[in-house]
Amino acid sequence: MVFINSNRSLKCKKTLGGVKNAYLAPYKKVLRSQIIYNGKELTQFPETFIYKFELVNGGFEQSQEENDGGKFYNQRITLNFNKISIFDNINFSKLLRKDYFLVLEDRNGNFFFMGFRNGASCDKLDVNLTSYTLTFEAKEEEFAPYCSSLIGTDLVPVDYENKIFENEDNQIFENDNNYIWH
């Protein structure tokens, strides 16, 4: 029998929902001793360079399931990006079938870490006439950790802009940077 030992009052209805930004980094196995996590809030993570993706909208879902191996959490995020270009099509297709670590920033300024132990992957890129949709999925043994700020976690956002020629041609170099010449 489970005992209820606390109350819950009605919370303010002025919170905004949805994911504002997604930060992606290639997944790498991290030792448990390198992460400081108290069961709900992540306070330290090894230095990782993350890339910011601004979203039109995004929806994060998390559900707990159980099988013969025990309980686990299914995590899923759908990221929508507007304005299609050939350059974006090439770059977004590079994200497929690889594992990533995602940091999701909601519209209230909170951060959630998806796939922080096992990684998250995207198997399909949906393209229509006006937008791209990527869906990342992960299975984790713990609820997605929360963090009120990226400061102190050693996650380093990379300032990266796509640079395009005046005639709208792209020149991609070995380091995946693009440049503008006038």
Secondary structure blueprint with pairings:
Elements: E1 19-26, E2 36-37, E3 42-44, E4 48-54, E5 57-67, E6 70-82, H1 86-94, E7 99-106, E8 111-114, E9 120-127, E10 131-140, E11 146-147, E12 155-158
Parallel strand pairs: 4-12
Antiparallel strand pairs: 1-4, 1-7, 2-3, 5-6, 6-10, 7-8, 7-9, 8-11, 9-10
Provide an overview of this structure.
The chain has 182 residues and is mainly beta. It has one domain (19-158). The protein contains 1 helix and 12 strands, in the order E-E-E-E-E-E-H-E-E-E-E-E-E. Strands 1, 4, 5, 6, 7, 8, 9, 10, 11 and 12 form a 10-stranded mixed beta sheet that branches. A hairpin with a 2-residue loop joins strand 5 and strand 6 (70-82). The longest helix is centred in the middle third of the chain and has 9 residues, at 86-94. The radius of gyration is 19 Å and the shape is globular.
